[in-house]
Design brief:
Number of strands: 11
Structural class: alpha/beta
Strand content: 5-15%
Shape: elongated
Strand order of the largest sheet: 7-6-8-9-10-11
Oligomer: single chain
Radius of gyration: 22 Å
Length: about 325
């Protein structure tokens, strides 16, 4: 059988991409765009049958890109987030889009708990004080995580793992999700935001969730932990709430603009823990991501259902004719 044309978009050297996809070498012809920019992506798409997505979101498949790929049969996103991909356009073209749901759940949920502990126990402030020659045993006023009311926004694999870990610390855990579960603790979003001592945001970014969390509506003195996407939280309102002392602090792994620009007020905000969108980046989660990606690509090539399809398209991938129309 003629190898499938696979267009690989992750920001990795071509040699490394070919090495990672070596188990499929006799079944796919791996190609990369001539450059990491939109024009090169559009130039490469007409021959692409499978796209391995770009987790940075730079080379996303919007409606124009989907229209430029008449032979496209499957998109495998090697991440949980699918920012920038036009799910409606892919659905209309009959192209399933799959992600790697759950591979980073352990890593991200551990980061959320670690971040909450750092904020409640004032670890960064204590470290800075000792380095400066101070010894503020009584002045930092840390508090215990045990007994705190933790609200989790989003209850996919990461949210479920967060709930398990925070409950192990003796926290009272509630959650909100767009699709309520039978698991106890589901609370309406307004109540969750207004009553949580620690608000943990781990929901996917979409048109529906952009700007979903307004820090001005949070409980005075509460802590915000965001490991979702920067756009889910109103960042300007967060800066204002921190400056005015309405919040007790924030831990942010994600931002509206990444990397965080020079001069961004969050860089100077007191009581804020900043992280370079690395909550889910561990050797263990990377191993799970690679395994899930290869498993799904193999299933697609075998004609078996692929896992974690996000749009309303059959999970069985069908190759399109070479002379498929471009409209």
């Amino acid at each position: 059988m003629t190898p499938w044309n696979l267009l690989a978009l992750p920001p990795l050297p071509e040699e490394l991409l070919r090495h990672l996809l070596a188990p499929l070498a006799d079944r796919v012809d791996v190609r990369v765009p001539a450059a990491r920019e939109r024009g090169a992506l559009l130039d490469a798409l007409p021959e692409a049958e499978i796209v391995l997505g770009d987790w940075t979101g730079l080379l996303a498949l919007d409606a124009e890109a989907v229209a430029a790929a008449p032979r496209l049969a499957f998109v495998q996103q090697p991440s949980v987030g699918v920012d920038g991909h036009d799910l409606a356009a892919l659905t209309a073209a009959g192209v399933p889009l799959a992600n790697t749901a759950g591979v980073s759940a352990v890593a991200v949920s551990e980061w959320c708990v670690a971040a909450a502990l750092s904020l409640t126990r004032k670890l960064a402030a204590a470290d800075a004080a000792v380095r400066a020659g101070d010894w503020p045993q009584q002045g930092l006023q840390p508090r215990e995580l045990h007994g705190q009311r933790v609200g989790i926004v989003g209850f996919g694999p990461i949210g479920v793992s967060c709930a398990r870990l925070f409950r192990a610390f003796g926290c009272e855990v509630s959650y909100w999700t767009r699709r309520p579960r039978e698991e106890p603790g589901h609370t309406d979003l307004e109540t969750l935001v207004a009553t949580s001592d620690v608000l943990v945001v781990v929901i996917a970014l979409s048109d529906e969730t952009r700007g979903l969390i307004d820090p001005a509506r949070m409980k005075p003195g509460a802590l915000l932990v965001n490991a979702a996407r920067g756009g889910v939280v109103d960042q300007a309102a967060l800066v204002a709430a921190l400056r005015e002392g309405r919040l007790g602090g924030a831990a942010l792994d994600v931002f509206e603009t990444e990397p965080l620009p020079a001069g961004d007020p969050l860089r100077e905000a007191a009581g804020v823990l900043l992280s370079p969108h690395a909550a889910g980046v561990t050797p263990e989660s990377t191993g799970r991501l690679l395994a899930a990606t290869l498993d799904n690509l193999t299933a697609a090539l075998d004609g078996r259902p692929v896992a974690d399809v996000l749009n309303d398209v059959s999970p069985v991938v069908r190759r399109k004719p070479v002379d498929s129309p471009t409209s």
